[in-house]
Amino acid sequence: DALVKGVTNATQWRTRSQLVGITGQVKGDGTVPFLLREMKEGLFLSSRVAAAWQLHRRDNKDAAPAMIEEWNKIGEKEDKHSDDDSRGGECLVEFLVVCDKPQAIAALGKDLSKRRVDVRLSIVKELHDNVPYMSPFSMELRASTADSAEETLGADTQEAAEDLLGSLLDDVEERTGMGSMWGFASFNDPVIGEVAAYTLAQ
After folding, report:
1. Under a CB-based contact definition with an 8 Å cutoff, are residues 146 and 184 in contact?
2. I need a labelling partner for 79 at 20 to 30 A (CA). Which of 1, 57, 117, 175 fits?
3. Are 200 and 166 in contact (CB under 8 A)?
């Protein structure tokens, strides 16, 4: 239809990704074949991830494996984004953290020491922002939240996230020239091992 044609003709990553998201909100299964095709063959990483999100929300089992494959393809080449797709890598990391698949977290952790410090930091930040850890305080706090059952990721996913963070505790590389807030803590020139430890302690 006209919407799918509009996506197909979009040659700017932001526009294409937004249109993919709109297409995925159309009720029924009519757009699923298009979303599957876009997830595998889309022009931009960000639009492929956008298609994966829409399929994942429909409980499509192909979405997470496809995004794990995307991550593995990046490999040691890293995700040095071109100006044409500056958000693709960030969106991919977010998907792999939030999709609630322990194998997705494991994929992020594979050969992580070979990734640039920016990439390692972005993974820790996504884990900090999205994964509830199993400390007694965290469990008690979430138990007091009415919708906690819907928000909590599976125990296997949480365990995989904690394993990944634990593997970074000895990482002493700094991301220089950067300052940011992580919850109630402020980090300037964050050290990967320190922010990993902070995230585990939450």
Report:
1. no
2. 57
3. yes
pTM above 0.85, yes or no: no
**What six digits make up the tokens of 128?**
């900090």
Q: For residue range 68-93, list pLDDT tens digits in order.
A: 999 998 864 554 444 455 678 889 99
Token digits of residue 67: 């995004």
Token duo for residue 186: 């402020």
Looking at residue 24, its amino acid is G
Are 32 and 2 in contact, with CB atoms under 8 Å apart? no
CA 42, CA 11: separation in Å to the nearest integer?
10
Q: How far apart are CA 181 and CA 201, in angstroms?
A: 16
Closest CA relative to residue 172, chosen from 145, 190, 150, 186: 190
The tens digit of pLDDT for each residue in 140-186 reads 433 443 444 345 678 899 999 999 999 999 999 999 888 887 877 88
Rounded to the nearest 5°, which phi and psi values hold at 186? -115, 135
Per DSSP, what are the bridge partners of residue 185?
182
For 162, other C-beta atoms within 10 Å of its C-beta total: 17
- State the Cα–Cα distance between residues 138 and 58, nearest whole angstrom: 29
Is residue 54 within 8 Å of residue 20, measured between CB atoms?
Answer: yes
Residue partners of 66: CB distance under 8 A and separation at least 6: 39, 40, 48, 52
Predicted local confidence at residue 80, as pLDDT: 47
Matching residue, tokens 């509830």:
132
What distance in Å separates the CA atoms of residue 163 and residue 134, rounded to the nearest whole number? Answer: 12
